[in-house]
């Protein structure tokens, strides 16, 4: 197995791993107000998130920026809580709310990228030429992210189309459930923040 395929696999397995379900929750709630027919809008949304986390993932792994790991681990569920609240309170998708979603996805991607970097740094160890590994890992993350998005959109499609669940009720249920999980994570991780 080549280095590329190893790091690609590590990337998608990392984001799809239930042990690190915070990223799964974020991607799910991020596309929670969209339908399968909105896949182009979701693609733009996910691309904004990708740009954000690619920037900080690269900068952190290359030691351009240094982060307080416990603070980032706290901020990740904060992004989930905030995104859940946006879904709950935005009753209609207008151009303004869509732009807000894209901006938040980009900004929150910056935070998630720093979270991904801690895992990747531990894998790379003292390796000096990390560009190829960084690229493969990032592509793996994107592949995993696409799997999560497709799953979330298919579940919403089945519930809305066949179970006749109103879209707004599904959005409220999904966002509220994810809010509850993420809020508990916020409290737990806030208590673990180490200020230096």
From TrEMBL:
The chain crosses the membrane at residues 20-37, 42-65, 71-90, 102-120, 140-160, 172-193. Keywords: Membrane, Transmembrane, Transmembrane helix. It holds the Pfam family HupE_UreJ_2. InterPro entries: Put_HupE_UreJ (IPR032809). This is HupE / UreJ protein.
């Amino acid at each position: 197995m080549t280095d590329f395929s190893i790091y690609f696999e590590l990337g998608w397995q990392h984001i799809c791993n239930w042990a690190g379900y915070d990223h799964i929750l974020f991607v799910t709630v991020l596309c929670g107000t969209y339908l399968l027919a909105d896949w182009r809008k979701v693609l733009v949304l996910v691309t904004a998130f990708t740009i954000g986390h690619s920037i900080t993932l690269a900068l952190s792994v290359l030691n351009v920026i240094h982060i307080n790991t416990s603070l980032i681990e706290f901020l990740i569920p904060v992004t989930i809580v905030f995104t859940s609240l946006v879904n709950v309170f935005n009753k209609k998708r207008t151009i303004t709310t869509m732009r807000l979603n894209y901006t938040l996805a980009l900004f929150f991607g910056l935070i998630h990228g720093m979270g991904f970097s801690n895992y990747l740094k531990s894998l790379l160890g003292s390796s000096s030429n990390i560009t190829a590994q960084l690229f493969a890992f990032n592509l793996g993350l994107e592949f995993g992210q696409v799997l999560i998005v497709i799953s979330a959109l298919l579940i919403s499609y089945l519930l809305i189309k066949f179970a006749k669940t109103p879209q707004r009720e599904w959005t409220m249920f999904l966002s509220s459930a994810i809010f509850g999980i993420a809020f508990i994570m916020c409290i737990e991780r806030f208590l673990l923040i180490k200020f230096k």
